[in-house]
Design a protein that fits this description.
The chain has two domains: 67 residues; 31 residues. It contains four helices and no strands.
Length: 129
């Protein structure tokens, strides 16, 4: 209990001192970027769980239509947040790579960023096709 109280007090102190930045800096991500990231991550994880549950449903199950509606609305919300994240990164660029990163780590980060951009473009294009 004491550790939790100390952490909360330290977080409040940082907030009062202005150490919590809303926008990205050259060295760190800002508060808005972190919130967007984690909310979208939780949405995607919940979509995967909901999708796994939906696989076992048949058309005549009681929850079939409700889970389909939830999956659509949560998926569109996640897509909207992803587009908002892209717009935010265009407006407020993310910090550069760490100086301690090796060449292969930077390369792998670039490959992963490209794969995520490709999957996002497919998520946008698939409903339009």
């Amino acid at each position: 209990m004491r550790v939790h109280a100390r952490l909360r007090k330290a977080a409040c102190l940082k907030w009062k001192q202005g150490n919590v930045a809303f926008k990205n800096s050259a060295a760190r991500y800002g508060l808005f970027s972190k919130i967007l990231h984690w909310v979208n991550a939780l949405l995607i994880i919940s979509l995967v769980g909901l999708g796994c549950y939906m696989v076992g449903l048949t058309y005549y199950d009681r929850w079939y239509n409700a889970t389909l509606a939830w999956h659509k609305s949560l998926g569109l919300t996640a897509l909207g947040l992803a587009l908002l994240m892209i717009g935010w990164q265009w407006y407020n660029p993310p910090p550069g790579p760490l100086a301690t990163m090796q060449h292969w780590e930077r390369w792998a980060a670039g490959v992963m960023r490209g794969a995520l951009a490709n999957s996002l473009s497919e998520a946008i294009g698939a409903p339009l096709a």
